[in-house]
User: Fold this.
Amino acid sequence: MLFNETTVSGFTVKNRIMRSATHDGLADANGAPSDKLIEKYVQLAQGEVGCIITGYAAVSRNGVSPYPRMLTIFDDSVIGRYKALTDAVHEYSVPVVLQLAHCGRQTSSKAIGMQKVAPSNVLHTFYPDKAKELTDGEIYAIIGDFVAAAVRAEKAGFDAVQLHGGHGYLLHDFLSPFGNRRKDSWGGSLENRVRIVELIIKGIKAKTKLPVWIKISAEDNRKGGMNIASSVEICKLLEKAGCDAIEVSCGTVQDGMNTMRSKLMPMDAVFKYREPCASFPKWLNAIALPAANLVNPLIKQPSPLENFNVGNAEKIKNSVSIPVIAVGGIHKVSDMENILASGKANFVSMCRPFICEPNLVKKLKNGQEQARCIMCNYCGLVIEKEPTRCLYGRVK
Ligand SMILES: Cc1cc2nc3c(=O)[nH]c(=O)nc-3n(C[C@H](O)[C@H](O)[C@H](O)COP(=O)(O)O)c2cc1C
Ligand code: SF4
Assistant:
């Protein structure tokens, strides 16, 4: 089943293994795919991945990430470069899905050159500058930005778009009562909180023929935030609105290493790539890093480390009839087969294993039993300053 050809949202995939959205830090100065990014995607396609979901692409100028070289799609000038990317990937008969995102509160006003925006002004511990609460008109403008981005994606030859509705970004903040404290028609009840995503889906459907997927954080570890019971209800509403597939993830950037889990915090990477530590003078680093390494084993990390969204994917799959994709700590062929055979998800997706081995699916098909990625999370820190790469448990 895992390696058999099948279809999803009307297009063919060679197997049921997808590359989950991964920010590569390889956009060019205009936010369009660079030659290096296209080369990376060709490697993934040559490695026989079933489908590639791109790294997140910002739909609005005020929705850009603080990480360098994020993809953007708020401007027609980038369509040609995205077309070059889809053409290169399609040469290998691999479909490619563009992930559309607005970073909301999870960016800094300094990085975007204007005040950041959010459904509500809730403090973000990593990016503490104040977010402007969106007005009605500004919310409709962002809906328009998502729809316009999807129109560009269709022109560029993408097979589908995926809305980034998780990990603490703008749409997640609307869905979650933690990020959404509004008292108007966009907040309060579950129906109100889902409204922005419903309108985006319907808007894209009205203007394009593209399937619309969503990635959500089914649970987010935030007081009063997303939990699986409300996520199930949200997914039912999204299916009704026309959503074509749901990828089930968890967590936010703020809750540390929950979305992508690791036994230990990668301290030397934290000190090299994360502010304010990255700007500490050398003498301070020489004292602080050994001290941090000493306490590191005492810092409780989220668990389990493997297959950690599969239970939630199953609960969602049992409540909707559209395909469900499970992501998070999936790295063994035996687990993937079990997830599919037991009907817990229709597809599995991976991120870090493909950073480590872009030709992973080919290797798994040829008998390698599991991904080599050791889930150390060094790649999750390097992106704060440089293009994504595998550091395999150490800073190079
Ligand atoms: C370097 C890196 C970049 C990521 N970029 C994105 C992204 O652009 N969009 C997204 O939805 N998730 C992103 N993620 C999260 C992954 O897609 C995935 O949900 C998470 O890593 C768990 O899957 P894994 O255990 O297979 O790595 C990123 C993760 C890493 C490590
Ligand atoms: S740095 Fe490499 S080994 Fe470590 S989690 Fe990332 S991809 Fe896996």
Observations:
- The chain has two domains: 6-263+304-382, 264-300.
- The mean pLDDT is 96.
- Residues 136-155 form the longest helix (20 residues).
- The radius of gyration is 20 Å.
